[in-house]
Amino acid sequence: MPVSRRAFLAGAASLPLAARAVSASDPALTLTAAPARLQIAPPDYPATDVWAYDAQVPGRMLRYRQGDEVQLRLANGLDQPTTIHWHGLRLPNAMDGVPGMTQPAVAPGDSFDYRFTARDAGTFWYHPHANSTEQISRGLAGVLVVDDAKGPDVDADEVIVLDDWRMTQEAQIHASFDDWHDLSHAGRLGNYITANGLPDLRLTAAPGDRLRLRLVNTATARIFRLRLSGLRAWIAALDGMPLAQPQEADEVMIAPAQRVDLLADVTAKAGEEAVIGSVERDGTYATAVIAVSGAGGATRPAPAPLAPNHMSDLSLDTARAVALKMEGGAMRGLPDGAVWEGTRMDMRELAEMGQFWAFNGVAGMTDDPLVDAALGETVRIPITNATAFPHAMHLHGTHFREVLADGTLGPWRDTLLVMPDQTREIAFAAENPGDWMFHCHMLSHQKSGMMNWIRVT
Ligand code: C2O
Ligand code: CU
User: Fold this and answer.
1) Distance of CA 165 to CAs 175, 198, 253, Å?
2) In the structure, which protein residues have their CB atom closer than 6 angstroms to any atom of ligand 1?
3) The whole model's pTM is what?
C-alpha cells in the first residue's frame, strides 16, 4: 500500500506518545478547561493556541476499572460557559453534561462535580456540550477507558485519537465556526489530521504481537476511512460495546464520535512498519505508524470476543415506532414552512437564524420530545436521511441496536452513520430515566438544526 508520509500542512514529526493515564483512585481529580499553547502542527510550524483540558490535547486519558466510582471536577478556565458530556457512558441523567437540560452551564471561573459509576467496560470519550463546534474544534476532548476484570490477552493496549483541524498557514485554528457553507454542507472539515494530537504518531511492536487499538474519532465532521497495512485486524468492539464475534477487517470506517476497538496482530516483519492510513481524496496519509522490531512471536488463532456488557433484551414486537425524517442542507434544502422556535419560516429566514436542517420539519430543539417513553419500553426509530449528506446520529444515555432489513439486530452502538437516501432503524430499551439528547454529531449540523431529545419516565 503506498502511504504518503506528508502531513496535511507539510513535514513529518516523530514524537513519542506521552503517558497520560491517571489513576482512577485519585480522589481530587480536576479537569481544567482553559486556553493553552501546544505544538500540534509539525515542528517547522509555530505552536497552536488551543482550548484544552489541563493543557493537553487530547485531554488526559482517564482510566477506570468496571464498577469504579468516577469522581471528577470540571473547572472552567475559559471565558465562556462549558460542561462535560461523557459520550457513550450509561450514567444518571444529572451527570450527562447537557447545559439547560441536565445541568446549568458552568460559568467561567466556576466548577462542577461529576460523579457516576463506570458501569460498562469499553472505550468512551468526553467533550464539552456547550458551544461544542467551537470548543471541540479548539481541542477540548479526551478519552475515558473502562477496563473489565478479564481483558483480552494482548501485548499492548493503545488509544489512538483521530482529529481533524482547520488550521491557518500559521497553524492557528481557523475561527470560522459559523461558516454558512460548513453549516449547510458536510460540516467543518479540516485541512490537518492528527493522531493523539501529533502529526505523526509512532508506536513500536514486535512481529506477531497482538495489539488492542482503541480508535476514537473526535473530529466534528470528518468521517475517517482507515486502511490498515502490516496488521491482521478484527473489529472487537464498536462505540465501547463488544461484538458477539470479532470481525476481520482491513478497512475501518469511523464517523465523528464513534469508537472502534481493534484486536490487531502485527504481520509486518522486523524492520518493517505497520501503518494505519487515512484514505483521503488525494491519497492515503499515515496517521499512526508502528515500527516493528525484535524477535517474532507465533501466529495466533483469531481472537475470542471481548466480555460483553450487560445489556437489556429488546422486545421488538411490542415496541413503539416513532419515525425521524432528516431534511435540509445544500442541494436539497428544507421543505417549505419548517419551524424554528415555534415559528414557521421560509428557507431564507431560517438561514438568517443559522438554521439549515430539520428533524420532522422542525429545526433545533422542540418543547416536546421526539419520543416520550415509559420506563421499560422498547422504542424503535426509523431514521430517514432525505438530505444529500451523511449524518452521524448519537443518542445519549443508552446504546441502541440497528434493526436490519431481515429483522435481525446489529451491534450495540451509540452513534450511527446514516448515508444519504438511507433509512436505518434503531431500537433501544428506555431504561434510564431522564431527558436525553438525540442529535447529529457532525456538530455544525447539530447547531444548525439537527437536534432533538427523548424523555424517559
Ligand atoms: Cu458526544 Cu451530544 O454528544
Ligand atoms: Cu449531520
Assistant:
1) 11, 11, 19
2) 85, 87, 127, 129, 257, 394, 396, 437, 439, 441
3) 0.94
CA distances from 317 to 209, 215, 403, 431 (A): 45, 35, 12, 17
State pLDDT tens for residues 29-40: 999 999 999 999
Q: Minimum-distance ligand to the CA of 327?
A: 2
pLDDT tens readout for residues 106-136: 999 999 999 999 999 999 999 999 999 999 9
The edge-to-edge listing of strands for the beta sheet with 434-440 is 371-373, 451-456, 434-440, 391-395, 415-418
What residue ranges define each of the domains in the chain, with the CATH number in brackets? 19-147 (2.60.40.420), 156-292 (2.60.40.420), 316-456 (2.60.40.420)
Report the separation in Å between the CA atom of 390 and the middle of ligand 2, taken as the mean of its atom positions: 6
Of the candidates 212, 180, 179, 215, the one whose C-alpha atom is nearest the C-alpha of residue 196 is: 215
Q: Are 124 and 146 in contact (CB under 8 A)?
A: yes
- If we measure between CA atoms, which residue out of 201, 230, 150 comes closest to residue 13? 201
Q: Which atom of ligand 1 is nearest to the CA of 127?
A: 1
Nearest atom of ligand 1 to the alpha carbon of 396: 2
